[in-house]
Design goal:
The protein has 135 residues and is mostly helical. Helix content is 87%, strand content 0%. Helix 2 packs antiparallel against helix 3 and helix 3 runs parallel beside helix 6. It is elongated.
Length: 135
C-alpha cells in the first residue's frame, strides 16, 4: 500500500483520528464567525473605521506570542482535555464580550484572550492528531 493510501485509510478508519477531526470541526466552524464578523462588528457596533479593525485584528493575531508563553506552562499542569476546555471557554468569553461590548479597548483586550484560546485549541488538536498517526 502506498503512503498516500495508508494516510487516507488511517484518517478514514481510525476512531481516534475521526474523534479529533470532529472536535476540530465543532470548534473551528462556529469559532470562525468571530474572525468573519470582525469587520462588521468594528464598523457597525463599535463605530470604528479601518484603524479600529486593524487594532482588533492585531489583538486577535497577537495570540502567537501570548499563546507560546502560556502553552508551555499549561502543558506541564493540564491534560489535553483540560486545555481544550479552558481554551474553548476563553475563546467563548472573548467572542461573547466582543458581541456585547461597545468599547474598543475592552474588545481589544478580550480579543487577545480569544486569540490565545484559538491558538491553544488548534495547537492541542494538531498535536493530538499527529500522535496516533503512523510514521
Amino acid at each position: 500500500m502506498t503512503s498516500a493510501r495508508q494516510s487516507i485509510f488511517c484518517i478514514t478508519y481510525a476512531p481516534d483520528v475521526r474523534r479529533i477531526q470532529w472536535r476540530a470541526a465543532l470548534f473551528v466552524l462556529p469559532a470562525s464567525t468571530l474572525w468573519a464578523l470582525l469587520p462588521v462588528i468594528t464598523d457597525d457596533h463599535l463605530h470604528q473605521g479601518s484603524g479600529g479593525y486593524g487594532l482588533l485584528l492585531a489583538a486577535l493575531g497577537s495570540d502567537a506570542v501570548a499563546g507560546a508563553l502560556v502553552l508551555g506552562r499549561l502543558r506541564k499542569v493540564l491534560t489535553g482535555h483540560q486545555h481544550l476546555l479552558l481554551s474553548g471557554l476563553l475563546y467563548g468569553f472573548g467572542a461573547l464580550a466582543t458581541a456585547l461590548s461597545t468599547s474598543l479597548p475592552i474588545v481589544a483586550v478580550v480579543s487577545v484572550g480569544a486569540g490565545v484560546g484559538w491558538l491553544i485549541t488548534l495547537s492541542t488538536l494538531n498535536t493530538a492528531m499527529q500522535l496516533p498517526l503512523p510514521r
